[in-house]
Design brief:
three-stranded antiparallel beta sheet; 95 residues; 3 helices; Outer Surface Protein A, domain 3
């Protein structure tokens, strides 16, 4: 069980130096991602659970405490959901 994060369809991407802009023309939202946020966004090219994202980032950044990664991911995913750039789906395998 848990939540699955899914990209909202129709979000445009614009590369700007080492950052990525996410643009939603329907809501006029423009969201700026740093390189780590861009990596998470790219990983979400298919729907993912938080634990999957955590595992990949913990493996990629072994020197960073897991709690720090968890806090950063939680904050980023929350912001993307608040801006309606991601949709949260419940993963109820037992239903």
């Amino acid at each position: 069980m848990g939540s699955i994060y899914v990209r909202t369809p129709g979000i445009l991407e614009k590369k700007l130096d080492d950052e990525l802009l996410l643009i939603d023309n329907e809501t006029d939202v423009i969201f700026n991602l740093n390189p780590l946020g861009t990596a998470v966004w790219r990983f979400l090219d298919t729907p993912r659970q938080t634990d999957e994202i955590m595992a990949v980032l913990c493996a990629a950044f072994p020197g960073v405490p897991k709690e720090k990664i968890r806090e950063d991911i939680s904050r980023l995913l929350g912001q993307l959901v608040d801006c309606k750039l991601l949709v949260v789906q419940k993963n109820d395998l037992n239903s």
